[in-house]
Design brief:
disordered N terminus, eight-stranded mixed beta sheet, alpha/beta, single chain, 3 domains
Amino acid sequence: MTHTPLTTLVRRCSPLAVMALLLGFVGCATTSTSTNSDNAPKAVSAKSAATPLAKGIDPKSDPNPFPSTYVAAPSVMTALVHASVLTGNGEEWSDATVLLADGKIAAVGPSVTIPADAIVIDARGKWITPGIIDVHSHLGVYATPGVWASSDGNEATAPNTAEVWAEHSVWPQDPGFERALAGGVTTLQILPGSANLFGGRSVTLKNVASVTAQGMKFPGAPYGVKMACGENPKGVYGRRGRAPSTRMGNVAGYRAAWIAAREYVRHWDEYHAKIARGEKADPPKRDLQMDTLAGVLRGEILVQNHCYRGDEMAQMIDISKEFGFHIAMFHHASEAYKVAPLLARENICLATWGDWAGFKMESLDGIDANAALSHRAGACTVIHSDDAIITQHLNQEAGIAMAAGNRAGLNITRAEAIRWITSNAAKSIGIDQYTGSLSVGKMADVVVWSRDPFSVYAVAEKVYIDGNLSFDRSITTAPRSDFEVGRSATVGFR
């Protein structure tokens, strides 16, 4: 082999290449040919470009394979005038106007200029709030009629089923959606059940008529993953002679899953880094279960954690810190009042009922003032349903919780309590930039109530979704579900 003189290399190479050469490294990036023993030119092969993975094999290739097809229904500019208004932002006004235009909140307050082409509705004596958001619903996955064929909420076949997605069980024609709409519910988070440590992904839906789940999916809403503490997973699998059968088995199962998820993230990150550098690399095997947990670790998927006891909430927070993720909300949270300052400090919301407690051991210490005490401690408090009946009356459920707090001397106002089913609820599932309050520019998801919404006599008279009048109690319309034909005719949702 012939050798090129050093002076020639210096002329051909960049200064950095020369420095590398003098330090004992070999090669020069600008050299395009080499010579063999026969002194004949020989091309230097470039690094082979990575072969693109087949569609669907790389989890980053299509992170949203079931995209929303929701399109807001047409709306008209509407001014709701002379109403009592709870904005969801901590404000309460009397004799105020809410102006809806182009599907958004255009103006709200006691002094609103009404365009000449707006439809004006006199709401004197009525109350107006943002649309109600139910953050814990099983509508569609435990649909009516409640028979085995429509029981699709719990994939109770393994402690970790993070690979399943609730939207693939949602039956959009569940009549429960229409009943919830008649109660002012405009948005719902549909969750898998709580049989497993990891139950699967949640989906957030607009409460609109559709023949597909994609047609109801809330555009831009993040996914959640359902986790469960306590009695449910240890009971389901312990009775089968499988792990977990204890609370310590639960915790071991969480930690093992997060260790595996961390490794999964590392392997894919290393693969993508090598490809970005132009290096050859073998991709890891895609795992749908790990995709969901990896989404949590990357901050893309929110943890929605079924957990009743205060001590278990503290343990789950420790686990989240061990593996570097954040818990968005504890659901049911009967003992939230015991750890409310901790939840406030960690910016974790809690979702609970007004007075539903004591129905099993882990809810034994639940108290009626739970929501109010937690709220007063600074925690993001939400009232949820977890029930096809309660979802029709979440305004009353919030009223029960408010009244319990006030009996305890906490002085909860209407302006505060409405946040439990509107703006706080929106924050807890990651959609507060879109809805949850009567803020200018947000979706015109609005309810007109017959009277004070916390009254047991209050009913939703009109419900707007994106400015479209989606429910009007004064108008008799054909039911959206075949199962509601008789009910609609006899009770008219009154």
